[in-house]
Design goal:
Layout: E1 2-3, E2 9-11, E3 20-22, E4 31-35, E5 41-44, E6 50-53, E7 57-60, H1 63-71, E8 75-77
Antiparallel strand pairs: 1-2, 2-3, 4-7, 4-8, 5-6
Length: about 80
């Protein structure tokens, strides 16, 4: 197995001429939060991205957004999410 400059790994079978490239992506963090203050609203993150709260729930996958909601008093993480 060899590393590729873009972060991919090269795997070779028995015949070196049949090399296959497999791209390994980092696993996304997905977390759900309950909004304790509103049943619906738009959350605007510091980077300008937005997420919709619907039925008091919002799900985000960007690590910065997860951190933002973890630190915000109006939101609590839903059991079972990352």
């Amino acid at each position: 197995m060899a590393s590729h400059p873009c972060g991919a790994f090269l795997f070779w079978g028995i015949d070196m001429l049949q090399a296959k490239e497999v791209i390994a992506f980092p696993q996304a963090t997905v977390a759900s939060f309950r909004d304790k203050a509103f049943r619906s609203r738009t959350v605007v993150f510091p980077d300008g991205d937005t997420a919709m709260v619907e039925k008091s729930l919002v799900t985000v996958s960007d690590p910065g957004h997860v951190t933002f909601l973890d630190r915000h008093a109006d939101f609590e993480r839903v059991d079972g999410s990352a």
